[in-house]
Every structure is written in C-alpha cells, then in structure tokens.
Amino acid sequence: MSPSTPTEWKPASPGTQLPPLPANPYPYPLYAWDLVAIEKFNQGKAQADCYHANQNLAADYISGPFARFMASYSIGRTAPDAQPPAPPMALVVQAAGPSEDGSLGLHFDFVPGNTPVCDVPAYQHQPAPTPPPPPPTTVDVGDVIQAEPPTADGMSVGTRITGPDGGTYVKMARNLPFGTVYLWYRVK
C-alpha cells in the first residue's frame, strides 16, 4: 500500500472504501469555515490512522498467534505438517454518511478489507520427530561390571561366580522406589 495523493480531490461518498496512507497528505485547515479543507483533513487523518492501525495489527499477529504457534511447533508439540494461523484481514477506511440527527457530517469507519494485513512470516519446517534409539543393554554402576546381562539369568541373589577376568562376582538386589534392580557386584 503505497501512499498516493490525489491530483483532484473529491469528497468520498458514503460506502466508498479508501486505502490507508502512512501520513495525512492534507494540511490542517486554517479556517473553521473552510468545509472542503476540513473534509480533506478528516479523510486523510482517517486514512493515516487506518495505516497505523494496520501496522499495530500486523505486529500483534506476529508477536501473538504466530509466536505461540512457533513456540509449540519448534518443540514438537504441534504436528510437523501443521500450518500457522492466518493473519487477519487488513483494515480499510470506509466513508459513512452523515449521522441521523445531522450533527456529524461525513465520517469514516475502519472495516476489514479483502487482503491479509501481512504475509505469514517464513519459518523452517520441522521434520517428523524420530524416537531416540533404545538404551544400551550394558550395566554400569560404580565398580559393578559392565557386561551384557544374561538373557535368562535364573540364578538367585547371593550366587557367586568367577568372571572371564578371574574376579569373583556376587549377584545382588537393590530395592528402589520404581522397582528392584538386580546386578553382579565384584567382590575380589
């Protein structure tokens, strides 16, 4: 939406939609009886106010719904193929007719237009999360041996065996809050 100053100004008729402008192109009227200058100024002010309202709307979208989407998306809480929320429609200025009692002349309202207030910001698409590899089946606790646990260790607690390194190992059990852990402890 680039600012444009009309070459020949005509008052907007009720229902006409006007584009937002970054600044009011019409100066403040010098005389209170110059109704054309007042109309020009009010129309330009409404267009400038609408431009700034759109800037705020875009900033609120990026720091609000889009930021919340990205926070969930980047940690994997949102599905990898999820789309971010769409930005709201930009506001445009619509000329409204005089008030019913005639106390107000032509006035202006902001109404949603047909185009989004901004583009969806670019973001890096996350691949589908892969589960972590299973933990290794080795045991490593203090000076306990690190070895593959036997697949069917039917030996009871307290059993002593001689290991491949010549050391003597005792089967022990430890009760923990989440269950019982069985391990082989080197005694000599």
Please, what is the oligomeric state?
A: single chain
Q: Mean pLDDT, nearest integer?
A: 77
Strand order of the largest sheet: 1-2-3
Please bin the fraction of helical residues: 10-25%
* DSSP strand content: 15-25%
Helix count equals: 2
| Beta-strand segment tally | 6
Instruction: Report on the biggest sheet.
Output: 3 strands, antiparallel
The run of helices and strands is EHHEEEEE
Q: Based on helices, strands and strand pairing, what is the structural class?
A: alpha+beta
What's the number of domains? 2
Shape: rod-shaped
- Runs in which pLDDT lies below 50 for 5 or more consecutive residues are 1-7
Radius of gyration using CA atoms only: 37 Å
What are the SSEs and their pairings?
Elements: E1 17-18, H1 35-63, H2 65-74, E2 89-96, E3 107-116, E4 160-162, E5 168-176, E6 179-186
Antiparallel strand pairs: 1-2, 2-3, 4-5, 5-6
Helix pairs in contact: 1-2
Overview of the molecule:
With 188 residues, the chain is of the alpha+beta class. The chain has 2 domains: 100 residues, no CATH class; 55 residues, no CATH class. The protein has 2 helices and 6 strands, in the order βααβββββ. The protein has a 3-stranded antiparallel sheet with strand order 1-2-3, covered by helices on one side. A 3-stranded antiparallel sheet has the order 4-5-6, with no helix packed on it. Helix 1 runs parallel beside helix 2. The termini are far apart.
